[in-house]
Amino acid sequence: MALAGSPGGAGWTWRPVARDALLARAFHSCTELRGRFYLVGGLPAGGATEPSGDTVVFDPAGGQAVRLGARGGPRRSHHDAAPVGGRWLCVVGGWDGSRRVATVAALDTERGAWEAWSAAPGSRPPAGLSSHTCTRVSDRELRVAGREGGTRTQRRYGSVYTLRLDPGARTYSYKEEGCHTASRSGHCAALLQTPGPRPGHQLLLFGGCNSAEPEVAGHWSHGKLGEEPPAAPHLREQLARLVSTGQGSRQGPRGLRHHSCSVVGPFAVLFGGETLTRARDTICNDLYIYDTRRSPPSWFHFPCADQGLKRVGHRTCLWNDQLYLVGGFGEDGRTPCPQVCILDLFI
């Protein structure tokens, strides 16, 4: 496999570690829970409008994928999902084949059964959500960001919601926040520490519109956030060494959407996606690293010559100090990738 490099002699690639036709899909969710990756829904091929209703569990330690036998799974694509209580996988919103929805379906991973949770009294749900983001800010609270609307009407700005989840009551409740963002679809979200002696956190949105500027969709002062990201000390050190070989920029990628994003310590790692800045050859294979260790933060761009690494509608997952790439369509924007890869860095 070709190695993407930088002038400093460093390089990176995605190294295949597993392959299974069950994993071949795009615009799915892929969520780590108790050392397993849960893939829900997605589209089986480019041009498909009917999302899959299956759930596949991938064991990264053993490299094996199995289809979950649970009935009643949601048919969804362009949705998002988050773990709750170390037990439930909550699937939020998405496209069900005919409309955008804002409902929540939950997989009880202990029982291996899907549950249809209901909206609590007083919930103010969005009209519909797709290509949005859901970010955990505590074990039972998500911050939802994206453009809402049905297939005919959509707001011209992005909405931000707090979604509270109650596993005991099997209910959820939306509350719209006062802040609005640019109209974004297919963006990513990263919960990152703010630099300084008393670091807080902010939720940044990247891409999903023509702007190259990240946008704040939430801010929490020091000690106010109940969410600790997984530690990845080795990968964090490797990323620090990789960016030390590059040239930082204040300008991020412009017009990128349906890319992946994972937070590794002070870094947001973005990969692939589709660019809105070109009419042809729109699927990307670039690695971008957003470094928040200093103020103002810097972008580092590490391009790639390997056409086989182009991806859109894929997901990345952090587990056991390694970053995994799962699914997505390849360079033709139509063929789903059955591989699971690990990010290898060579410094």
Overview of this structure, please?
- The chain has 347 residues and is mostly beta strands.
- It has one domain: Neuraminidase.
- The chain has one helix at residues 233-244; strands at 4-5, 11-19, 29-33, 36-40, 55-59, 64-67, 80-84, 88-95, 100-108, 113-116, 118-119, 133-138, 141-146, 157-166, 171-182, 188-193, 201-206, 215-220, 256-257, 260-264, 267-271, 274-275, 287-291, 298-302, 315-319, 322-326, 339-346.
- The chain has a five-stranded antiparallel β-sheet with strand order 1-2-27-26-25. A five-stranded mixed β-sheet has the order 11-15-14-13-12, with no helix packed on it. A four-stranded antiparallel β-sheet has the order 3-4-5-6, with no helix packed on it.
- A hairpin with a 2-residue loop joins strand 12 (133-138) and strand 13.
- The two termini are 17 Å apart.
- The mean pLDDT is 93.
- Interacts with CCNA1.
- GO terms for molecular function: cyclin binding.
Percent range for helical residues? under 10%
CATH class: Mainly Beta
Architecture in CATH? Answer: 6 Propeller
How would you name the CATH homologous superfamily? Answer: Kelch-type beta propeller
Biggest pleated sheet:
5 strands, antiparallel
The CATH topology assignment is Neuraminidase
Number of helices: 1
Strand content: 35-45%
- Pick out the low-confidence regions: none
Query: Strand pairing plus helix content: what structural class?
Result: mainly beta
Shape: globular
What is the CA–CA distance across the termini? 17 Å
Strand order of the main beta sheet, please?
1-2-27-26-25
Number of domains: 1
SSE order: EEEEEEEEEEEEEEEEEEHEEEEEEEEE
Based on DSSP secondary structure assignment, what is the total number of beta strands?
27
Cα radius of gyration in angstroms: 19 Å
Mean pLDDT: 93
InterPro entries: Kelch-typ_b-propeller, KLDC9
Keywords: Kelch repeat, Repeat
Subunit structure: Interacts with CCNA1.
Protein name: Kelch domain-containing protein 9
